[in-house]
Protein backbone atom coordinates (compact mmCIF):
# COMPACT_ATOMS: atom_id res chain seq x y z
CA UNK A 1 0.00 0.00 0.00
CA UNK A 2 1.45 3.36 -1.02
CA UNK A 3 1.81 6.09 1.59
CA UNK A 4 2.65 9.77 1.21
CA UNK A 5 4.12 12.37 3.53
CA UNK A 6 3.72 16.12 3.53
CA UNK A 7 7.33 16.53 2.48
CA UNK A 8 6.83 14.38 -0.63
CA UNK A 9 4.58 17.06 -2.09
CA UNK A 10 6.71 19.98 -0.97
CA UNK A 11 4.71 20.74 2.21
CA UNK A 12 1.84 22.12 0.13
CA UNK A 13 -0.07 25.02 1.70
CA UNK A 14 -2.88 25.30 -0.86
CA UNK A 15 -5.40 22.71 -2.08
CA UNK A 16 -4.77 21.44 -5.60
CA UNK A 17 -3.02 18.80 -7.66
CA UNK A 18 0.62 18.08 -6.92
CA UNK A 19 3.17 15.94 -8.73
CA UNK A 20 3.47 12.50 -7.24
CA UNK A 21 5.59 9.46 -8.19
CA UNK A 22 3.50 8.25 -11.14
CA UNK A 23 1.23 11.21 -11.84
CA UNK A 24 -0.54 13.74 -9.66
CA UNK A 25 -2.23 13.63 -6.26
CA UNK A 26 -5.23 15.77 -5.29
CA UNK A 27 -4.75 17.50 -1.94
CA UNK A 28 -7.73 19.10 -0.18
CA UNK A 29 -7.88 21.87 2.40
CA UNK A 30 -8.77 19.20 4.99
CA UNK A 31 -5.64 17.19 4.11
CA UNK A 32 -3.47 20.29 4.56
CA UNK A 33 -5.17 21.11 7.88
CA UNK A 34 -4.29 17.62 9.16
CA UNK A 35 -0.67 17.99 8.04
CA UNK A 36 -0.42 21.43 9.65
CA UNK A 37 -1.65 20.02 12.95
CA UNK A 38 0.24 16.70 12.63
CA UNK A 39 3.29 17.24 10.36
CA UNK A 40 4.34 13.58 10.67
CA UNK A 41 0.97 12.23 9.49
CA UNK A 42 1.19 9.73 6.64
CA UNK A 43 -1.72 9.35 4.21
CA UNK A 44 -2.69 6.25 2.26
CA UNK A 45 -2.67 6.94 -1.49
CA UNK A 46 -5.76 5.83 -3.42
CA UNK A 47 -5.05 4.93 -7.02
CA UNK A 48 -7.31 6.21 -9.79
CA UNK A 49 -9.70 3.93 -11.59
CA UNK A 50 -8.12 1.75 -14.27
CA UNK A 51 -10.68 3.31 -16.61
CA UNK A 52 -9.50 6.85 -15.91
CA UNK A 53 -7.50 8.57 -18.63
CA UNK A 54 -5.52 10.60 -16.08
CA UNK A 55 -3.29 9.31 -13.29
CA UNK A 56 -4.63 11.53 -10.51
CA UNK A 57 -4.34 9.91 -7.08
CA UNK A 58 -6.35 10.83 -3.98
CA UNK A 59 -5.50 10.76 -0.29
CA UNK A 60 -7.34 8.31 1.94
CA UNK A 61 -6.96 7.53 5.62
CA UNK A 62 -3.98 8.74 7.58
CA UNK A 63 -1.77 7.50 10.39
CA UNK A 64 -0.22 9.65 13.08
CA UNK A 65 3.44 8.94 13.69
CA UNK A 66 5.61 10.26 16.48
CA UNK A 67 8.61 10.67 14.25
CA UNK A 68 9.15 10.54 10.49
CA UNK A 69 10.32 6.98 9.78
CA UNK A 70 9.00 6.34 6.28
CA UNK A 71 10.99 3.17 5.66
CA UNK A 72 8.33 1.27 7.62
CA UNK A 73 5.70 1.94 4.94
UniProtKB/TrEMBL annotation:
It comes from the Bacteria. This is Uncharacterized protein. It comes from Rhodopseudomonas faecalis. The lineage of its organism: Bacteria, Pseudomonadati, Pseudomonadota, Alphaproteobacteria, Hyphomicrobiales.
Amino acid sequence: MNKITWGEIGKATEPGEYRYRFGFVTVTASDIAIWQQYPNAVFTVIEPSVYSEQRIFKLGTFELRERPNWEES
